[in-house]
Design goal:
The chain is α/β, with parallel strands linked by helices. It has one domain: Rossmann fold. Helix content is 39%, strand content 16%. The chain contains 10 helices and 13 strands. The strands form 4 sheets. A 7-stranded parallel beta sheet has the order 3-2-1-4-5-6-11, sandwiched between helices. Strand 5, helix 5 and strand 6 form a beta-alpha-beta unit. It starts with a strand and ends in a 13-residue tail after the last helix.
Length: 343
């Protein structure tokens, strides 16, 4: 039986990836700091461990797996990445994880490893025009990411590719572009734009106002999780090392993204633009290389994925409301103790 290891298996993309690998007949081990938040893991074996510790990496990679998928990282949405408050943790934690994993793979003679990089590594100077951002894979240099998260991703891309040259490995590198879908983080500060907007719309009543960082004219493309998983597995099993974009070419403004979600929800809402971290002005996947090397590129319309995602997040919002109402209904009465009287 073929074996696979998914690092970061408790996260959004990782948990979906485990499920697909199991569907394909793999024996799968998952590793993460936590189990998946919204469903039972499909993994045959799940290790809860901190991959910043090299001992844990060696314990997780205790055999020669056929495929290793490295998704574990310290990451989040704009509210986490672009404030500057988490830069040291982002760079230290993610770089340490990648160094430990590669060391453990070499020890066990693991050859085929997938690494999930990010479009955040592209130069900020190529993403100032919201209508014509440049994200061709060969546009990465001269390097100038707009965040320390992007710098760490760029370093780690190069790290994995050096192991191909020096250790005869078959590492594959993909640059993800804004992956979204059900079972992704949807509140708490680490959620990305589609989830945040779906949550705000789901919570709002007809005619309400929702808040949005910036003027909403910044552009992005968003890729539904199923297409991400398909591209990831195809690249891992290909003879192309990358880096290559895995993303959608359907670019929208964040204002238009909100309008699509409102239409799905059947609500007419106002948008109040407020100051906040927004990242680059424009970003869109450029898919010429993936079409050439894999004979495939994501093609599902954004609205289809948003409909599935909104339905799921609206259900989460209602469940949270129900739990909060139950807590209020069943909460114990508050009793004030009398003032202490000296005896």
């Amino acid at each position: 039986m073929r074996t696979a290891l998914v690092l970061g298996a408790g996260g959004f993309i990782g948990s979906h990836l485990v499920r697909e690998l199991k569907r394909q007949g793999f024996w799968v081990r998952g590793v993460d700091l936590k189990l998946p938040d919204f469903s039972e893991t499909a993994a045959d074996d799940f290790i809860v461990a901190d991959l910043r510790d090299p001992y844990n990496c060696r314990a997780a990679i205790d055999r020669r797996f056929d495929e290793v998928y490295q998704l574990a990282a310290d990451m989040g949405g704009a509210g986490y990445i672009f404030t500057g408050e988490n830069d040291a943790n982002i760079m230290h934690n993610s770089a340490t994880i990648n160094l430990n994993i590669l060391d453990a793979c070499v020890r066990r003679n693991v050859k085929r490893v997938f690494y999930s990089s990010s479009a955040c590594m592209y130069p900020a100077y190529n993403q100032e025009d919201p209508d014509q951002p440049v994200t061709r894979e060969d546009s990465a240099y001269p390097a100038a990411p707009d965040s320390e998260y992007g710098w760490e991703k760029l370093f780690s891309e190069r790290l994995y590719l050096t192991y191909n040259r020096n250790y005869d490995m078959q590492c594959r590198v993909a640059r993800y572009h804004n992956i979204f879908g059900p079972e992704g983080t949807w509140d708490g500060g680490k959620e990305k734009a589609p989830a945040a907007i779906c949550r705000k719309v789901a919570k709002a009543k007809e005619g309400d106002e929702i808040e949005m960082w910036g003027d909403g004219m910044q552009t992005r493309s968003f890729l539904y999780i199923d297409q991400c998983i398909k591209g990831t597995i195809m690249l891992t099993r290909s003879d192309f090392e990358g880096p290559v974009n895995i993303g959608s070419e359907e670019m929208v403004t964040i204002n238009h993204l909100a309008e699509i979600v409102m239409t799905i929800a059947g609500k007419s809402l106002k948008i109040r633009h407020i100051p906040g971290p927004v990242g680059v002005r424009g970003r869109n996947s450029h898919n010429e290389l993936i079409r050439k090397r894999l004979g495939w590129a994501p093609d599902e319309p954004l609205e289809i994925g948003l409909r599935r995602t909104y339905t799921w997040i609206a259900e989460q919002v209602e469940r949270t409301r129900g739990r909060n109402a139950a807590l209020r209904h069943h909460s114990a009465p508050v009793v004030a103790l009398p003032d202490r009287v000296a005896s």
